[in-house]
Every structure is written in C-alpha cells, then in structure tokens.
Amino acid sequence: xxxxxxxxxxxxxxxxxxxxxxxxxxxxxxxxxxxxxxxxxxxxxxxxxxxxxxxxxxxxxxxxxxxxxxxxxxxxxxxxxxxxxxxxxxxxxxxxxxxxxxxxxxxxxxxxxxxxxxxxxxxxxxxxxxxxxxxxxxxxxxxxxxxxxxxxxxxxxxxxxxxxxxxxxxxxxxxxxxxxxxxxxxxxxxxxxxxxxxxxxxxxxxxxxxxxxxxxxxxxxxxxxxxxxxxxxxxxxxxxxxxxxxxxxxxxxxxxxxxxxxxxxxxxxxxxxxxxxxxxxxxxxxxxxxxxxxxxxxxxxxxxxxxxxxxxxxxxxxxxxxxxxxxxxxxxxxxxxxxxxxxxxxxxxx
Length: 350
Hints:
By secondary structure, the protein is an alpha/beta fold. The chain has helices spanning 23-30, 77-90, 118-123, 135-154, 173-185, 204-207, 216-221, 251-255, 258-268, 288-292, 310-319, 342-346, and strands at 113-114, 161-165, 191-196, 232-234, 239-242, 274-279, 298-304, 326-331. The protein has a domain at 120-334: 3-Layer(aba) Sandwich (Rossmann fold). β7, α11 and β8 form a beta-alpha-beta unit. Mean pLDDT is 80; it is low at 49-55, 57-63 and 77-98.
C-alpha cells in the first residue's frame, strides 16, 4: 500500500493552526514514499460481465536513471598487484581432494571353501543354487535388482552394505537374508559376504551346515584382529560368510565404536563388486539393529504377511532411520494381485 504526500497549503489567516496530517501521510514524507504510485484501478466497470474479472495492472514506470558516476582515477600496475595478493590471502583454502579408492581390494578372501549341502537348503525352503529357476529365486531376483540399482546410482561403498531386519522375531529376516545372499552371489563377478550380526541368537552358520566359531564380534572386541582371518568360504561361487562370534554382553557398545567403521571400511574399500549383507537382530527386540543402521546404505525391513502390525513397522522405521534407504519386504504372502507365477513359467513349481 502506498499514499502520496499531500501538498502543503497555507490556510487563510483565520486564527487557527493548520490541521496535522494523518499517521500514514507523515510516514510517507518521513520514509520517502512520494515516488510510489497507487495501483491502476479503473474508475468503473463497463458491464456486469466485467465484474467477474479483475482488471490488469498497468506496467510500473521504469526507475529513474541514476546520475553518471565520475570515472575512477588512473591506477598504477602496482595497485592491481597488491589487490591480487590480498585477494589470494583472503580466499579460503580449498579442501583437500578425497583420496581415490585403491584399484585392488584392501582385503582379499582366500580361506578354504567349505561344502554347503544342497539338500539341507531345500529342506529349509532356501534357494538351491544348482536347482534351476523357481518361484523363490525369481522373487529374490526382483529384490536384488532393486538393491543393485540403488548401489549403482549411489556409487559408494556405503550403498553396498545391506541390513536385513524385521520388527519382531519369527518374521523371516534370516530366511530373507540367506536367500538374498545366495541370489546375489549368482551375479557374474559378484562377491557377497553374509555377516551374522544377530549376536544373541546367531543361526546363519547352522542353517548352512557350517561349524560356528570366532567371527564379527571377536574382530570388534580385539583391535589387533584381522577380519579376513575369520571369513568362511563356501562352495557356492561368490558366497562368503562371517560368523557372529562370541557374545560379550556389550554388543551395542562395540557396534557404536570407531572400530566398527574401521572393520567395515576395510571390507569394502577398493571392492566395488563386493556386497555386505547383515542379518541383524529384530529392531524392536534388541538395540544392535539401530546401531548397524548407521553403517549401511540400504536396509530391507521384513514384514510377515498377516502377522506384522503397522505400529510395529512404524516403530522399526524410526529405530532404523539412520539408514538413508529403507525398503519394505513382504514375506510369506500367498496372494499375488497380478497373478505372478514365475516358477510355473519355467517349468518348476513350488
């Protein structure tokens, strides 16, 4: 809103003082609002039809031209040199370039590979890497494609660390972690390290028929330990396993320490084709899941059909919020709205 300053008119000599201007009029004079003009408003509307539309405002007058400034005095070359030196001194130092990752992995897995009994995998409903196409394999191919695409778009070692978790026990997070690791290991030139991070109830080694020993927690507790010495090889091409190790009673504290960053960075540095998959405790049952979420770039939150409640999912999402990319994985669903039947298409039924 703007007003014009009224012209000062001297009233006739009537023995009374001139009337004082209003507050807006005095503000107009004090703050230099005289140059502003009121918005263009028509005097009247031509017809009832014109009342439905607001009139267009007139283009504001161009700002008055500024008076020409006098040319600066001629300067000597030494003046410019002095200014350049001063400018360089005032300019903040550029941050040091981030060192490039080495071309070869910082850690190589060279341990002896142990046999995984395929019949044991089938008995537990897990993917048989030698069994051909199946409904289960096709479903986890869809899951792994989403994870691989996200890791490729992010192009960082952090994105190649995947946490598999669930709100409560018995919702299928270990089942999904195992199948995802087997499906990912089938990729050409892919190396997958499946880490049992469920320190309270470790089960990865037992489900694969392998003997459990020292592992992840032992490496975190001992600064002199080398993580590659505890990695167990399998005869499934591309699949390696790291046991949970001895439980200490201070799992969360060890995971929150700087040592965890050192160990995980050692595993992923210089290895763009290596994925780490963590089987963590349930988010609402133990605190290590929330600590692990700070060290991964992607997370799969497993929900069991007709069992996991919405409130539990929301609480789990809050606890895992340190992870920048959380995906929901529905487990044990028997109904598909689209009618997908991958196994029957390839000639395998489940």
